[in-house]
Specification:
The complex is a heterodimer. Chain A is mainly β. Chain A is built from no helices and 12 strands. In chain A, strand 7 and strand 8 form a beta hairpin. Chain B is globular. In chain B, the strands form 2 sheets. In chain B, strands 2, 4, 5, 6, 9, 10 and 11 form a 7-stranded mixed beta sheet that branches. Chain B has a 4-stranded antiparallel beta sheet with strand order 1-3-8-7, with no helix packed on it. By secondary structure, chain B is mainly beta. Chain B contains no helices and 11 strands. The chains are: A mainly beta, B mainly beta. The interface between A and B is medium-sized, with 23 and 24 residues.
């Protein structure tokens, strides 16, 4: 079956610290991979995506690389800001479908 | 400009009193989804439409129904809300079926059941 596993939160960092949020997946075939961000009280916004192995998605200083050999899509940012505080969801879309299967989400808290 | 618009943002309903949540989109996408997200949990797909073709997830309770009268609008009807149905309901859309299509979410409708 298809599933996504994310590291448990909350992740608590000081401003300008390096961020990694781990995400691994199980899927048949070649899924597309996504990171969505959810700010308090709001819906989900696409942060970045990758549709095939070795693709790197990037946006707003965040990056993630689709690693087929380790079935991973870890989210990284070199220097976090207080405004990055949110819940981050890793998700996959099985090949040739438009359904999203989400991980459980990781809350990030950044303090000044 | 908002592309997936949900109304109302906040809804309080009484136990057992039917409620309808609405969603409209300006993207002309043929796929529309309804997700349920309970506090501190991942969104869970309830159902989705490819055009007018309705696809129900196997574990979606019968209490949840949906209507899509045209491309732009989609409704979620909860026939007899229980306390366990309190959640945020997210509408989403995507374009023609294909690998890696982005799914666009609305801001969500918070449902409280009293």
């Amino acid at each position: 079956g298809n599933s996504v596993t994310q590291m448990e939160g909350p992740v608590t960092l000081s401003e300008e610290a390096f961020l990694t949020i781990n995400c691994t997946y199980t899927a048949t075939g070649y899924p597309s991979l996504f990171w969505y961000v959810q700010y308090p009280g709001e819906g989900l916004q696409l942060l970045l995506k990758a549709t095939k192995a070795d693709d790197k998605g990037s946006n707003k200083g965040f990056e993630a690389t689709y690693r087929k050999e380790t079935t991973s899509f870890h989210l990284e940012k070199g220097s976090v800001q207080v405004s990055d505080s949110a819940v981050y969801f890793c998700a996959l879309s099985p090949y040739n479908t438009d359904k999203l299967i989400f991980g459980t989400g990781t809350r990030l808290q950044v303090f000044p | 400009d908002a592309m997936v618009i949900q109304n109302p943002r906040y809804q309080v309903t009484q136990f057992g009193k039917p409620v309808t949540l609405s969603c409209s989109q300006t993207l002309n996408h043929n796929v529309m989804y309804w997700y349920q997200q309970k506090s501190s949990q991942a969104p869970k797909l309830l159902f989705h439409y490819y055009d007018k073709d309705f696809n129900n997830e196997a574990d979606t309770p019968d209490n949840f129904q949906s209507r899509r009268p045209n491309t732009s609008f989609c409704f979620l009807d909860i026939r007899s809300p229980g306390l366990g149905d309190a959640a945020m309901y997210l509408c989403a859309t995507s374009g023609p079926q294909g690998a890696g299509n982005t799914i666009y979410f609305g801001e969500g409708s918070w449902l409280t059941v009293v």
